[in-house]
Amino acid sequence: MARTAVGALEGRRIVLGVGGSVAAYKAAIVARELMRRGAAVRVVLTAAGARFVGPALFTGLTGQAVASDLFSEGAPEHIALAAWADAAVVAPATADLLGKAAGGIADDYLTTWLLAFPGRVLFAPAMNRHMWSHPAVQRSVGVLRADGVVVLPPVYGALAATGEGEGWGRLPDPVAIVDALGAMLSANGPARRADLPAPHAPDLAGRRVVVTAGPTRERLDPVRFLSNPSSGRMGYALAEAARDRGAEVTLVSGPVQLSFPTGLTVVRVETTRQMLAAVLEALPGADVLIGAAAPADWRPAEVSPIKWKKGDGGEQRIRLVANPDILAEVGRQKGRLIVVGFAAEAGAGPEEALRKLRDKNLDLVAYNDVREPDAGFEVTTNHVILFDRAGGRQEIGPLPKRAVAERILDGVCGLL
Ligand SMILES: Cc1cc2nc3c(=O)[nH]c(=O)nc-3n(C[C@H](O)[C@H](O)[C@H](O)COP(=O)(O)O)c2cc1C
């Protein structure tokens, strides 16, 4: 379940944009869920959207006139509606709306309103799977993300039109859309687009990036496990930076205490073997894998189904077996995939990172010494040396993990 700040939508004024998709009927459930959480909702319906669901549905639900025609007398004036709103959600967002919003086109009420609105916007696209994977649509998504817009990727499932079958393109569940909007508006994020950091060039638009983050846990008994103090911050910073540079990101995360980022797919795992399986599932079609997780290298040979008792004796022996090495497994069969690894060392020098680069068939490896005060596991900064296969060596930091992430992604972009 997405972690939404309690009451993030209470008292908020939300504009709900509805595009011309079969999924438009689900916008009614989004409107209801927003109102159930205490938000005031005004609906903007595109002309194509109105072919699928009538304005009367939304007027009936919200008690407010629906805006559709920029020039009609009596419609809410778009500049006034832009001043009224705290945030916007466009659900379903069509390929057409993504392209227009990315290109700054304003040829109807919704697209004009979106340009006039300075607050935060979330797009929830829904479309045919070939439309979603079209490079033009992915470019638009990349540009929007680089502009600070949150794009909630469509989910896998049955698509609307007869004979379309299953694929990526289905509108996420309305409750998940409202959760993502709540997360966007919760304490961590800036309320207005103008307060976002200057956008980075969308140099990863159209690319698929898989990032692993955090520790893994290996159970000893129902209440104990082996793990390590990885906070997941470096991996999350890399995933967010890749998203903001336009990539479609899958974040495979071990158990961490961080809020889930919006606008990317998070797969939660517990053990190293689950992490490997999730990575292998996410890799087809991916361009980059960044292994920033600290997966447990070992797991207990036996897991006790019942809790060990102190009375079991003064000594408890644990026999460990080796876990699979995720990066080495991927490196063996990587083809054109760019693979980036981390070598978090405590004692071994940079030569250990170079050994990993070679032995695991990596393209880049970031070495850090976790014993340094500004680097490694539980701190918000990092200090790494980035090695590449051509013998290149670049020292980065100490800097905030997000800044380190940007520099590592610069290295990745240089290889793509
Ligand atoms: C039956 C039908 C279903 C459609 N479903 C979608 C859809 O799910 N996603 C999409 O991007 N476009 C879909 N379209 C195409 C859009 O309606 C069309 O591009 C329209 O111009 C979008 O206008 P709008 O972006 O102003 O809402 C569909 C069209 C039809 C006729």
SS-based structural class?
alpha/beta
Q: Which ligands does the model contain, each kind named once?
A: flavin mononucleotide
Tally of separate domains? 2
- The CATH topology of the largest domain corresponds to Rossmann fold
Number of helices: 14
Q: Mean pLDDT, nearest integer?
A: 90
C-alpha geometry = elongated
Q: Major sheet, described briefly?
A: 8 strands, mixed
Strand content: 15-25%
Radius of gyration: 24 Å
Strand order in the largest sheet: 12-11-8-13-16-17-18-19
Q: Identify the CATH homologous superfamily of the largest domain.
A: CoaB-like
Assign a percent range to the helix content: 25-40%
Specify the CATH architecture of the largest domain: 3-Layer(aba) Sandwich
Low-confidence stretches: 1-6
- Write down the CATH class of the largest domain: Alpha Beta
State the end-to-end CA separation.
Answer: 34 Å
β-strand number: 19
If you had to describe this structure to a student in words, what would you say it looks like?
- The model is unreliable at 1-6 (pLDDT under 50).
- It contains 14 helices and 19 strands.
- An 8-stranded mixed beta sheet has the order 12-11-8-13-16-17-18-19, with helices on both faces.
- α4 packs across α6 and α10 (233-244) crosses α14.
- It has 416 residues and is an alpha/beta fold.
- The protein folds into 2 domains: 13-195, Rossmann fold, CATH 3.40.50.1950; 208-303 and 318-415, CoaB-like (Rossmann fold), CATH 3.40.50.10300.
- It starts with 12 loop residues before the first strand and ends with a helix.
- Bound molecules: flavin mononucleotide.
- Flavin mononucleotide (FMN) binds next to α5.
